[in-house]
Please model this.
Amino acid sequence: MLLVNIDYIPGKELEVLGLVKGTVVQSKNFGKDFMAGMKTLVGGEITSYTEMLNEARQIAMKRMVDDAEGLGADAVINIRYGSSAVMQGAAEVIAYGTAVRFK
Model:
């Protein structure tokens, strides 16, 4: 599966299959959430949240690819990510794009 964040693939004629997406709501356990809160007092990167969001992006991307494969896609173009906090210590991540088939 070819994954790109541009809206075309050079040298390829495309048939658009539709929007595909993958979402996940991810959280850290209480202990790591507490330690992350303590880190905000001294500043710096909160690595447990960085790791959480990296994992969430991977899961969302995999679910988007699964969605595209279900449509018989060869590629997903114009890929984007979005995220939002749903509660303290938990975030939703969405990966979305346009599934296409090569003509």
In short: The chain has one domain: 2-102. Helices lie at 30-42, 47-70.
